[in-house]
Design brief:
two-stranded antiparallel ribbon; 5 helices; alpha+beta; single chain
C-alpha cells in the first residue's frame, strides 16, 4: 500500500500514531508551520471517509450539512482529531464495511461513549421522517403478530427482495 496523506497526516520516522511532527510550507508567499500526525496509508478507505465526513459536517462552516450537525452544537471528540485513534476505536467496537456510525444520543456529539455502528436499515428506522405513518403502523402490527421486533420484519423483507433480485439475475 502506498503512503497517502489525508491532509491531516504526514510521514514520520517514529511509528507512534500519536506522535506529531512539525511541518512547514509556503502558502501565498507566507511560511506556515503547524503540527501533523504521521501517514497512515488509509486515505482512500471507507473508514477514513466516515471519519472525514463526520468531521466535515460538524466543523466546516461551508458544509451543506452544517446546520443539522455543527450548527446545532454537534461536535467531534477531540481525541478523534487523530484518524488512527478513531480507526482503533472503530475496529474494536464492531466496525465493518457497510455499517454507519450512529450517535446513541442524537443531541450529543460524536465520541467513543456516544457512538456505535449500525446497519442502513437500523439507520433508516432512526429517521422517523422517512417512514410514512401507514408503513410504520403496518410494520408494528406485523411484528406484533409474528412476535418479533420491527427490525426483524424489515430484515425478512430485504432478504426476500435480495433473493428475488438474485433469482432474476440468473434468468435474464
Amino acid at each position: 500500500m502506498t503512503n497517502t496523506s489525508c491532509g491531516y497526516c504526514y510521514l514520520s520516522p517514529n511509528p507512534d500514531p500519536e506522535e506529531r511532527i512539525k511541518v512547514k510550507r509556503v502558502w501565498n508567499g507566507r511560511v506556515q508551520e503547524y503540527e501533523r500526525y504521521r501517514y497512515h496509508g488509509e486515505s482512500r478507505s471507507k473508514l477514513h471517509g466516515v471519519w472525514a465526513n463526520m468531521r466535515e459536517r460538524c466543523s466546516n462552516p461551508t458544509s451543506t450539512k452544517r446546520a443539522a450537525y455543527g450548527g446545532r452544537g454537534i461536535t467531534v471528540d477531540p481525541s478523534w482529531d487523530n484518524y488512527l485513534v478513531f480507526a482503533a476505536w472503530a475496529r474494536s467496537n464492531g466496525y465493518a464495511e457497510g455499517l454507519s456510525i450512529d450517535r446513541i444520543d442524537n443531541d450529543a456529539g460524536y465520541g467513543p461513549e456516544n457512538c456505535r455502528w449500525i446497519t442502513d436499515l437500523e439507520n433508516l428506522l432512526n429517521r422517523t421522517r422517512y417512514l410514512p405513518t401507514p408503513l410504520a403502523t403496518a410494520l408494528e402490527e406485523r411484528a406484533a403478530i409474528d412476535g418479533v421486533d420491527t427490525y426483524a420484519i424489515i430484515h425478512r423483507a430485504l432478504d426476500a427482495y435480495r433473493e428475488h433480485v438474485k433469482s432474476r439475475a440468473w434468468h435474464v
